[in-house]
Hints:
about 250 residues, alpha/beta, 2-enoyl-CoA Hydratase, Chain A, domain 1, four-stranded mixed β-sheet, about 45% helix, about 15% strand
Amino acid sequence: MxxxxxxxxxxxxxxxxxxxxxxxxxxxxxxxxxxDIWERLDNDxxxxxxxVTGAGSRSFTAGADVxxxxxxxxxxxxxxxxxxxxxxxxxxxxxxxxxxxxxxGGIELLLAADIRYxxxxxxxxxxxxxxxxYPFGGxxxxxxxxxxxxxxxxxxxxxxxxxxxxxxxIGLINEVVPAExxxxxxxxxxxxxxxNSPMAVQAVKRFVATGAAEQAEAREPFEQALGDAVxxxxxxxxxxxxxxxxxxxxxE
Length: 252
């Protein structure tokens, strides 16, 4: 399991989340690796646009690997925030090619992408509340500002998945693209952006991304306190146990 970066031409970087046996879910080490990749690409003057996708055809990413370490502290939160670009602005435009399930932290990574394409079989959802987990990676902070309130809250509170057509209808993605042309479509868009003035493009991206990051950062202490309260509750114990035992949770 790893995250790979490949070059397409002189100015496009393709980032691939590669853990297909677990629906491309990311361990803590993978999240740290992804955080470092964003920092490296942001400082790479030859990179003018980024395409992010998942390995294989089943999943974009299911977000954090819930079967692994679930401890939380300030250091862990900082890594997650950097990896999912919650409070750290990226100056390079990002195009997401959603090639399958985009769940939990996958949605939160998607919210950092500027342009989003999805294959017809892609699914989208925020299952965290079903398992008594707070969506720390930015969904609660960002989603209501990117799509209509009612659609955002249904995703956040229902834990139900939606398909690619519905994701396009509510404005979560730009377009549904045939699976065999998905990466090609994303790269063509990236090439078009890369042909524009990098100074102007990155200035626009920096302004927009910094505004979103500052807004999330301002409410970070409150969100951390809410998330910590969920983690300290009996619901969290039951939810995580139910997830790992592959059963329905039962909350008192």
